[in-house]
C-alpha cells in the first residue's frame, strides 16, 4: 500500500518557513566587513578643541598677560668670579690651626679639645650652679610639705577641745539640776510595790538617769576649767 501523506502538509511547511528565524543560531546572512584603510589610529578618540578664532567681530584678540609655556627669558649675567673669589680670600680671616696633643715618641696626635686636658667645663658661666629642674623640684617639694602641714594644723584645730566659758558652764549646770529635779520627782512618784516587769525597768532607768546627772553636776562643780570635744 502507498504511504499516507497528509493533505495539510503544504500548509505546515508554509507556516514553518514563515515563523522560522533564518539567522537565529548561525548569525546574519551578510555582514559589512571593515575596510583595511579604516584602522584605529593613535589619539583618534581624544576630544578635539575647536579651532581658535583670530578675529572676533573684526577685532583682534588681546594678548595674554601670562607668558607662554615655551617662553625662555634671556638672562645675561656678567660677573667676574675669579676676582670675586680672590677678594673673598684676601679679605677673609685666616683659619687658626687646630691644637693637637702628641702623646708618643712616634708623633701620634689627636685633637686637644675633646681629650679632657682643656678645662672648658669649669670655665662655663653656669658651672657649679644648681640646675633649673632641681630648683623647680625642690620648690614643688616645699610647697607640698607646706600644704600638708597646713592640712594637719587645720585637722588638729577642728579636733581641738573647746573651753567652756563661765556663762555656758552656769547655764549647763542649771539645765542639769532642772533635769535632776524632774527625774527625781518622777522617781518619787513611783509605787512602792514593784510587782510588774515594766515598773522595775522604769525604776532602773530613772536610777541610772539620776546617777548620770549627779555625776555630771559633780564634775562641772568640781573642776574650774571645762573643755569639750568638737564633734
TrEMBL record:
- Species the sequence originates in: Furnarius figulus
Name of the protein in its database record = ENKUR protein
- Does the record's keyword annotation contain Coiled coil? yes
Annotated Gene Ontology cellular components are:
acrosomal vesicle; axonemal microtubule
| UniProt keyword annotations, A-Z | Cell projection, Coiled coil, Cytoplasm, Cytoskeleton
Q: By its UniProt entry, which InterPro entries does this protein fall under?
A: Enkurin_dom, Enkurin_domain-protein
The lineage, from the top, is: Eukaryota, Metazoa, Chordata, Craniata, Vertebrata
- Keyword Cytoplasm annotated: yes
Can you name one GO molecular function term for this protein?
Answer: calmodulin binding
Residue span, Enkurin domain? 136-228
Amino acid at each position: 500500500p502507498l504511504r499516507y501523506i497528509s493533505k495539510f502538509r503544504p500548509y505546515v511547511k508554509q507556516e514553518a518557513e514563515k515563523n522560522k528565524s533564518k539567522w537565529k543560531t548561525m548569525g546574519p546572512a551578510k555582514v559589512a566587513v571593515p575596510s583595511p584603510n579604516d584602522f584605529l589610529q593613535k589619539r583618534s578618540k581624544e576630544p578635539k578643541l575647536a579651532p581658535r578664532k583670530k578675529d572676533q567681530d573684526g577685532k583682534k584678540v588681546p594678548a595674554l598677560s601670562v607668558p607662554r609655556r615655551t617662553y625662555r627669558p634671556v638672562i645675561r649675567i656678567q660677573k667676574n668670579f675669579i676676582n670675586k673669589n680672590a677678594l673673598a680670600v684676601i679679605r677673609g680671616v685666616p683659619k687658626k690651626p687646630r691644637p693637637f696633643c702628641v702623646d708618643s715618641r712616634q708623633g701620634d696626635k689627636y685633637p686637644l679639645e675633646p681629650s679632657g686636658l682643656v678645662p672648658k667645663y669649669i670655665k662655663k658661666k653656669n658651672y657649679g650652679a644648681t640646675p633649673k629642674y632641681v630648683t623647680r623640684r625642690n620648690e614643688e617639694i616645699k610647697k607640698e610639705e607646706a600644704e600638708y602641714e597646713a592640712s594637719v594644723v587645720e585637722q588638729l584645730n577642728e579636733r581641738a577641745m573647746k573651753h567652756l566659758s563661765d556663762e555656758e558652764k552656769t547655764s549647763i549646770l542649771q539645765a542639769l539640776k532642772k533635769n535632776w529635779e524632774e527625774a527625781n520627782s518622777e522617781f518619787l512618784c513611783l509605787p512602792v510595790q514593784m510587782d510588774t516587769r515594766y515598773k522595775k525597768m522604769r525604776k532602773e532607768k530613772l536610777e541610772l538617769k539620776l546617777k548620770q546627772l549627779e555625776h555630771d553636776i559633780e564634775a562641772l562643780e568640781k573642776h574650774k576649767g571645762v573643755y569639750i570635744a568638737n564633734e
